[in-house]
Amino acid sequence: MRNQFPRRHLPHLGEESPRKLFANKSNMRITNLGFPNVYQSLIKVTVEKFWKGEATEAEVQKALADVQAYNRSAQDGLDLIPVGEIDLYDRMLATSVRFGIVPARFGTPADVIKSLATYLSIPRGIKDKQASPMVKWFNTNYHVVQPEIERDPQWQKDAPLPDLSDPRHILPLIGPWTLLAYSINTTSRSIPELFSILSKEYQKFINSLPEHTKVQLEEPSFLTKGIPQGYEDFLKGVKRHVHLHVYFGAVNDFAERLFALPVAGIGLDFFDGPENLSLLARFPKDKTLIAGVINGRNVWPVSARTEKLLEGVRKAIPEDRLYISPSCSLLHVPLSAKGEKGAFSFAEEKIAELKAVKDGKAKYAPFTQQNPALPKERFTRKRKNYWVSDIAYPTTTIGSFPQTADVRKARSDWRAGKITLADYETYMRKLTKECVERQEKLGLDLLVHGEFERNDMVQYFAENFSGFTVIKGPVQSYGTRHVRPPVITGPVSRPRPFTVPWSTYAQSCASSKGGSASGGKKPVKGMLTGPVTIVKWAFPREDMEQEAHFYEVARALAEEVKDLASAGIKHIQIDEPALREALPINPARHAHYLHHSVNAFRLVYSAMPDEVVIHTHMCFSEFNDILDAIKDMGADVLLIEDSKSKGKVAASIRDSGFPASIGLGVYDVHSPRLPTVEEMLAIPNSLDMDPHRVWINPDCGLKTRGEEAWAQLELMMQAVKILRKGVVEKF
Ligand SMILES: [Zn+2]
Q1: 698 alpha carbon to ligand 1 midpoint, in Å?
Q2: Pairing of strands 143-145, 134-136
Q3: CA–CA gap between residue 253 and residue 100 (Å, rounded)
Q4: What is the spatial distance between Cα 448 and Cα 458, in angstroms, rounded to a whole number?
Q5: 577 CA distance to ligand 1 centroid (A)?
Q6: Alpha-carbon span 527 to 573, nearest angstrom
Q7: Are strands 487-493 and 466-469 parallel, antiparallel or unpaired?
Q8: First CA to last CA distance, the chain
Q9: In the predicted structure, residue 678 carries a pLDDT above the cut 80
């Protein structure tokens, strides 16, 4: 009984209301847009073995076939079943290759289709061949491999195809406009020229499919880039049954043109775009509507919200022209909620819900939209000036140190009850002490405790806050990388300090010879994940707007910050790597989002005494469109990723009148390679800025590195010695 679970898991849903049932089984049909590829982690495990030389190509293909077969059976009973949308790595990569979009450094498209090793090296890189970049898929937590267009696209007849013989099968296909919107174009052709070429290749491909084939053409980029010139002509040349889908938002800006396109059906998202409901009066009488009325991006059981949306849809569209579906592909949720602590609705449960809705047997959980008032005041500190270091080119790290196999084993042994909590903590303290001592030996100025006790920067907070439920089922983040986003199930609070013991223990390990702070000891930084990142990398409540979640989490974090400061921790870092990616797709919502995300961040530290220094770190380098917001965050030190752009990001931040200090990530931590002193020196040397406001640090946390992390840091400290020699001290 999916929706009969303890209320503590769904406190926002209010009292159980009498179940409403649709009187009769209906004639509307049901479909789905895509399914997760995580069944038994078969694909992940086999592909990773293949990379290590421990699995054959045939074994990898069998893993894919097994997952495809499982997915088909899990979706049996749908009137239309998506097939061929899951891939060994990612759909965007597969679609690019189908249309001959392959970086020349990896060979020809035919080479890539012939060799699995080559195909799977595009997103990873190999020897001297750099990997294709990975980018976020809209504002989800999923990433795709960016197509690199270096020559004219050309349909590849030999690219693999799923079994389309069953007329219930539909082939999902990222549309040509969305593919182009995600591409890097290094040809001399303009985007309209490329669209014209690529869309003709799409026509050839689609028209080559068996005549009864239905195609699910996905163009979410209409939301960000509009409908391009020539899209009508492209569709006129397509001789198959097409369902055109625009998910992740409302289509009001271009509804008239969208509705007039020559396709059999149009798919709309009523969750991320509830405004779509008001457009249905104008929905064309000759087309089918595929109505996304079940939230494909969240894990809550079907509620009265769906019931209401469905009512609106059914009023406007007759059942014989109506499919209902999730709002987007279900790749954004885990596979099955069996065995979870809480009656969630993951991919398999959502399929069951679709069937229940169709049969009039759905039990809609009560739903009331909560509208907690967002704070009107702007949170601010008493002190007006930013803190500046008295050391030239001060040094620090981003926070985490390598988590070796031993660390992970200790954690899993403790969770499995093989060792006691006391033993686990003793071991973690030993690692922390060693880590502090090694940092001191290197001469780093601002120390960290190393974060050995943390599994993941969001999950760790979810486990220590009230109001979160941690789940087991994985979600694909990119390629073979899986994550387990926690679920925000209730009001968030912090029952007791949890980072404080680690930070104060690390501080006690610092030798008393070091620096001026903390009784003559070198200071240790307290480490927190910011409110936006915690919310963005979790499944939020459905009944409360994202911005209200930010403040709730920020209040819980503010408690922790207060306790850190009371315990004598003078430097506190609050990371917000998700700030940029959580930007809404709809530009009209940017100002609201940026105002409240920044204000929630400020709330975390605003009550701090003047001497407490606030640091923040972001793992991205596209600052330009949110520079004002970054400045407005008010941190004393902004630690960025600048090794790949060689100081250009810092320069543009400085040029914008950034008033605080910048931490230059001077080397790339994602590679085991030892950076040269010269290349690290080049970054601060290119930046004309007060050396007391320029921090030197790695460009991200060192968690995934091995022992080489220490050698890299040693080289960084050599570079700092040279830098400081060039500085004439002010005092
Ligand atoms: Zn980072």
Answers
A1: 9
A2: antiparallel
A3: 33
A4: 18
A5: 7
A6: 5
A7: antiparallel
A8: 72
A9: yes
DSSP-derived 3-state class of residue 663: strand
Contacts of 723 (CB under 8 A, 6+ apart): 392, 393, 681, 684, 685, 691, 696
Catalytic residue chosen out of the listed positions 169, 241, 670, 692? 670
Q: Share the mean pLDDT of the chain.
A: 93
Asked if the model's pLDDT at residue 303 lies above 60, the reply is yes
pLDDT digits (tens, 9 = 90+) for 618-654: 987 677 889 999 999 999 999 998 888 888 889 999 9
The token pair at 142 is 């999923």
Question: Residues 473-508: pLDDT tens digits?
Answer: 999 999 999 999 999 999 999 999 999 999 999 999
Distance 270 CA to ligand 1 centre (A): 34
Confidence of residue 673 (pLDDT cuts 50, 70, 90): confident
Closest CA to 355 of 542, 81, 83: 81
The rounded Å distance from CA 387 to ligand 1 centre is 22
Looking at domain 443-459+492-725, its CATH class is: alpha beta
Contact yes or no for 267/216 (Cβ under 8 A):
yes
pLDDT at 221 over 70: yes
Query: Which of helix, strand or coil describes residue 105?
Result: helix
Q: Helix 500-509 vs helix 546-566: angle between axes, to the nearest 10 degrees?
A: 40
Q: Average of pLDDT values for 178-194?
A: 97
- What distance in Å separates the CA atoms of residue 680 and residue 699, rounded to the nearest whole number? 11
Q: Does residue 513 surpass a pLDDT of 80?
A: no
Confidence band for 7, pLDDT divided at 50, 70 and 90: very low
Q: 670 an active-site residue?
A: yes
pLDDT value at residue 516: 54
Longest pairwise C-alpha distance within the chain: 84
Q: CB of 295 within 8 A of CB of 542?
A: yes
For residue 409, report the distance from its CA to the centre of ligand 1, in Å: 24
**Rounded distance between C-alpha atoms, residue 422 and residue 414, angstroms:** 9
Give the residue-averaged pLDDT of 59-84.
97
**CA 533 – ligand 1 centroid, Å:** 12
Q: Dump strand ranges (E) for 209-327.
A: 214-218, 241-246, 265-269, 288-294, 322-326
Neighbours of ion ligand 1 (CB under 5 A): 619, 700
Residue 704: the pLDDT is 85
The values of phi and psi at residue 643, to 5°, are: -75, -40
Q: Which residues pair with 608 in a beta bridge?
A: none
> How many angstroms separate the alpha carbon of residue 620 from the centre of ligand 1?
7
Domain ranges of the chain: 443-459+492-725
Task: Evaluate if residue 21 carries a pLDDT over 80.
Answer: no
Place of tokens 């491909």: 205
| Size (the chain), residues | 731
Taking alpha carbons only, the member of 373, 379, 459, 377 closest to residue 411 is: 459
Q: If you write DSSP's letter for every residue of 473-523 in order, what string do you get?
A: S-EEEETTEEE---EEEEEEE--S-SSHHHHHHHHHHS-TTS-SHHHHSPP
Average pLDDT over residues 366-374: 92
DSSP annotation of 76? T
Centroid of ligand 1 to alpha carbon of 655 (angstroms) = 23
